Amino acid sequence: MHDVKPVVDIQIAQSDAIGTPSVDMERRDLLKRSTAAALAWASLGVVPATPSLAAEYPTRPVRVVVPYPAGGAADVVARVAAKYLSDQLGQQVFIDNRGGAGGTIGTDAAARATPDGYTLVMHTISSAVLNKFLYTRVKLDVNTSFTPIPRSAP
Amino acid sequence: MPAQNLQEFIALLKANPGKYHYGSSGLGAIMHLGGELFSFMTETKVVHVPYRGEGPAMVDLLAGRIQFVVASVPALLAHIRSGELRALCVNADHRLALLPDVPTAAEAGLPGYRTYNWYALFAPLGTPEPIVQRLNNALVKALATPEARKQLEDIGIEPVVSNPTDLSLELKQQADVWGPLIERVGVTLD
């Protein structure tokens, strides 16, 4: 597992620093650097994103939240995109319609999902831009809650 | 509708303040705000009629109960091609391959009028960068296939290849346009 590796690095570095003061300096620096890197990962709370992880991704079906009901324009576009994205990823890409409250319910649900690449959201200009001005109770800002992938269609 | 083009239509509205109605899919929708932006930019007085969705607004437009809409290409395309509706301008920076004869708003004399919608994929914040890049590459390739292009174009959607940086910029630019307009119009939905 990739997310276990940095934890192992921390243990080696710590025991090394405490128990063997005569350790080769170059090796120690190297271990210190790996400790720092591991701690950076840990403090950010993210899974270490090694190239091999991205190469393996996705290993299971990917969910695309559509914050609008089935059958609407956003849903139709999302289903076409999902079909061809699925071909490229070699994994099933399925649609999860979470309509309601002008798109804010699905937007909120997607923002709370684990950020592991297995939950995505298809936004429109309404859910991505307009809602934060239209709904004063909505605290969610798409600019800071989501990472844009590409604009798929205007 | 006597107006043959955008300038004639604007002149008609100016000569008849408050007499022309436009429909939208609901309060705060891009169809509504697009009409408000049009009214603001052209200094015309038009009446907004909110419907429950784009479909009912289209029904009343085709029946002549309302006079115009600012709507999506998928909703309008068949009616424009059949001649039931007249397209005055495309509210984007370039002409659409789907409607090559329809001028952009700028070409029709209303520069800066942009009301296009888009659909874009996002990942929750914190999604590892290599995975976002992998998804970007996969989606760009997916949308480049002739089958995907055709299927999207058939429903009036033009695939655009982009990247996370450009999309972030687009979000900011759109917020700068619509935020002040929504405040000026005073629409709130909660």
Care to describe what's here?
The complex is a heterodimer of chains A (154) and B (190). Chain A is α/β, with parallel strands linked by helices. Helix content of chain A is 52%, strand content 16%. Chain A contains 7 helices and 4 strands; from the N terminus they run H-H-H-E-H-E-H-E-H-H-E. A 3-stranded parallel β-sheet of chain A has the order 2-1-3, sandwiched between helices. Chain B has 190 residues and is mostly helical. Helix content of chain B is 47%, strand content 8%. Chain B has helices at 6-15, 30-42, 54-63, 73-81, 129-144, 146-154, 164-185, and strands at 21-24, 47-50, 68-69, 119-124. Chain B has a 3-stranded parallel β-sheet, sandwiched between helices. In chain B, helix 2 (30-42) links the parallel strand 1 (21-24) and strand 2 (47-50). The relative contact order of chain B is 0.13. Classes of the chains: A alpha/beta (154), B mainly alpha (190). Strand 4 (146-153) of chain A pairs antiparallel with strand 4 of chain B.
SSE order of chain A, one letter for each helix or strand:
HHHEHEHEHHE
Reading side by side through the largest sheet of chain B, how are the strands ordered?
2-1-3
Q: What level of helicity do the residues of chain A show?
A: 40-55%
Tally the beta strands of chain A.
4
Uncertain segments of chain B = none
Using brief descriptors, characterize the structure shown.
heterodimer; A: 154 residues; alpha/beta; three-stranded parallel beta sheet; 52% helix; 16% strand; disordered N terminus; B: 190 residues; mainly alpha; 4 strands
